[in-house]
Design goal:
Elements lengths: L2 H16 L14 E5 L3 E7 L8 E6 L2 E14 L14 E14 L10 E5 L2 E7 L15
Antiparallel strand pairs: 1-2, 2-7, 3-4, 4-5, 6-7
């Protein structure tokens, strides 16, 4: 990581802490992930507050695990209830759209057939079982 990247990241995160409703592109754009390696599996935990299992996609293709989301929230306020007759006029309309895509290249010892994902209390957990890799095969050389 370069010094400039550290500098920019520091100020982006500092501004996000002060002005939480403003989207600086770093606070939710790339959720943080923890990956734990165990003897029989890899376990991944990703914090996705305010989201549900319906907002998240998990795909595995050729040992590349992709976790993505597209989430929209909208709220409307009208100062006059009679304004319902004129449905084309917004007085206040606020929308928030957040999306991200993270890709992880998995090692060769992953058993892709048994990858499982669960979602509880805003945390996505992906369990990735491991398999034993085949030992190198020695090939006999015959004289021609």
């Amino acid at each position: 990581m370069t010094e400039l990247a550290l500098f920019n990241n520091f100020f982006d995160n500092a501004l996000c802490d002060v002005v939480r409703d403003w989207d600086f592109g770093t606070s939710f754009a790339m959720p943080k992930v923890d990956v734990k390696e165990e003897k029989d599996a890899y376990t991944m935990h990703m914090d996705l507050p305010g989201m549900s299992e319906n907002d998240v996609n998990v795909e595995l293709d050729h040992n590349v695990l992709t976790i993505s989301s597209h989430h929209e929230e909208s709220t409307e306020e009208k100062s006059d209830k009679k304004a319902k007759k004129d449905a084309g006029k917004y007085l206040i309309r606020e929308r928030r759209v957040s999306e991200f895509t993270r890709r992880f290249t998995l090692p060769d010892d992953v058993n892709g057939e048994h990858v499982a994902a669960s979602f509880k209390n805003g945390v996505l957990t992906v369990s990735i079982p491991r398999k034993e890799l085949a030992a190198p095969k020695r090939i006999a050389i015959t004289a021609a």
